[in-house]
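check these tokens.
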Amino acid sequence: KKEGSSTITRPQVAPTGRSSGLSISMDPLLTANLQAFVAHRPTAAAQRSVSLPGLRSTANDLGATRRDFERQKLLEQRRKRGSMVFMDRMEVDASKRAALQQVSAMRQDADRRLQLDRMVERMRPAPEKKGPIVTTYGAICLWEGHNR
């Protein structure tokens, strides 16, 4: 550094070997989209309350189990954030805030909102099949894949 120079340089820090907070958590855009999806999704009870108030109970409500899945994913993200060190939490919070702004801007458009909603719905696990699986085949087929 020359004398009289007003340039400030950052000291070089050796890598600590700790993992970045982003590698532990889910993608910030997915998390932000999930958060926006849960926040903007009307509850099933509010939709039915006027027309058919006692049609289904919330315990057997399919919509309630779907909302529980999304809320469970968000809860997992909060728990992962809680186990991070301070600087990792700061980094994850900054990326989450930027991602939430991007997702909010994308959700302004109806087509993009539908695509983002489909992305959240694809995250859900497949429903469990109850009962035996019955397979059918064509009488003309001689081997598997013959009719393709």
Observations:
- The CA atoms of residues 106 and 112 lie 6 Å apart.
- The longest helix spans residues 62-82.
- Residues 1-24, 46-50 have pLDDT under 50 and may be disordered.
- DSSP finds six helices and no strands in the chain.
